[in-house]
Design a protein that fits this description.
The complex is a heterodimer of chains A (321) and B (351). Chain A has 321 residues and is mainly alpha-helical. Helices cover 78% and strands 0% of the residues of chain A. By secondary structure, chain B is mostly helical. Chain B has a domain of 82 residues. Chain B is globular, with a radius of gyration of 24 Å. Classes of the chains: A mainly alpha (321), B mainly alpha (351).
Chain lengths: 321, 351
Amino acid sequence: MQNRAVMRHLVEGQHIAPHAIEQALLLSEVYPPAKAWPAFIIRILLSFAVIALGCSVVFFVAANWHDMSRTTKFLLLQSLPVLAIACYVRGGSAPLIRPLALSAAFLCLGALMAYFGQTYQTGADPWQLFFNWALLSVPWVMISRFAPLYFAWLILLNLSIGLYHADLGALLPFDLSRMESLFWSSLLFNGISLLLWELSRAQFTWLDRLWFGRMLAVVIAYHANALALMAIFVSDASWLGGLVWLALMGLTYWRYRMRHVNLFMLALGCLSGIVVVVAWCANLLFDMHESAVFLLLFLLTVGLTTWAAMWLKTLIKENQA
Amino acid sequence: MTDQQTLIKQLTDKQCLTAPVELNDILSSPWYIKLLMAFAGWLSALFFFGFFGITVLDFADDAGVKIIIGVILLVSAYFVLGAKQSEFLEHVGLAISLTGQGLLWWAVIDYMSYKDAQLWIYLGLAQIALAWCMPSFLHRIFSAFIAAYAFNVFMSMLARIEVFSSVLMLACAWLWLSEFQHKQYIARFRAIAYGFTIALLLIKTSYSFNWLWLYPSDRHLTSAFMPWLDEGLNCLILLYVSWQLVNRYQLALSSATAIAAFCSVLLVGLASIYTSGLALALMFVVLGFASSHRILTGLGVAATLTYLSKYYYSLELTLSEKSLSLFGLGLVLLALAKVCLLWFQPQEDKR
């Protein structure tokens, strides 16, 4: 629990004398110390300045885009990644400049590739744009040692998978429908990503960001749930989706409860469980009177949620002990 | 010793605590567990609505019956939510309350048109009352959000929509700045602050995205002066925030640091006057930092990007003019950053 939450509880429970509230807030650093403000002010001014200037350039280019010749447009788009890489090379030891410069180069590369495809009518499908963009940017992503850029790279590959299915149909064999193939491919890709992240986070501390694993887990849960729901509701969908969902729930329990407690992952597993169990029951109760179905589903949802909340709170207590 | 135990010890040493506190007493759920509860609450409410819609409403075609059932449900929800705190009761209470409110709204719509300004002011006042009375954090956020939305529609009908966003911004600034001053009411005010904040962020985007439940023909024209008044008021609210923060750190108003802070804020406010919403986003980032509130900071950052996207599509200025205004703003901010570096560096060196 953060100091902020502790202080809130103490103030609410009137455990702190009214005259000492301000002092306690400063002591707990919920109100940051005065010496922290200069760095914050400079950071906020610089960040907003960079955003404003960046947007100003984008707006200017958009305003004059139609009047520019093709050569000018190419020169402009090619110079942007070069400029960003120059910033990276001359970035010095400032902690954020170099990874941010590489991230900017990564984004500019996408703009350049999009314009290239548009100008020369390469016939490439949109999925190829994102896939090639991801492929060409591998070296920059590798040297950046910057978790947000790695995540952006994963988003590109996820987009490629999605767009491939939208344009060309199922990617996987076994007579899978387009949707099933999309969910299986995304589940597999993000599952491998999460596995690699788990294996490498101890070695590469810059990759050991909680949000990274959490975002991947959310994507995996979404696709596993979609497969399980298809197995429940779609008659010609494979039952394997439900089985894999079940296996993932077991794996989550083993990894994040038995081996190393991770409350976020367990809460996500509970949410996924509630959705699938309620959907499964709704399917079973399909023939009953509608009002009875709604009432039973209402009671089931509340019951499952209460059980999940109590279990998670017990784990919090265990962790704090 | 954990961070929390260290904090409790420090507070005890400084004699800030009125009585010894056990860490177990202050157990709180992390945000993602609250999110899980919220999702499940809404899902269960949906089923409860379905059950109610099919069974009871067959007998409730009459508006009077709907009102009676709605009021009974609301009163029941109050007692359920006020009972011993448990996740089960909180979600049952939330579902019952939403069903009751839905029925009341349905009955009222039979008598009044949604284009009637009075309807929105009544809705706003009723939601404020619910936000204050209902003993549930989630319920309070929801009610405060709907109240702000209803007042916004009301002000839109009076052709004062721009001024209202400034009023709401001032309310948010005050609520977040004085968050810890409300003692036993802290949870109540915090929930209302969240509801207002979410509403304000959406209201500020509404000029371009028209998310309000109004057609263009329903919206009364405002004068060209009004948006400028709104941005000017936003600038004054930024000054109010900086004044409060200067007071918090017990700086004299006439000190060089305080005067420099006010001038900088004024300059930033004026430089961003063309970019509607940027002053608001900046305020949330600063308020978030001022009370270590990461969610508020995150909302401010997200709002910055949203308002800049909105600015791109606004029709009041040409793209070149917008580019120029942003360029000017960027230069002002860079210059201020440089001044700050020069100002603070000698003080750092002295330390």
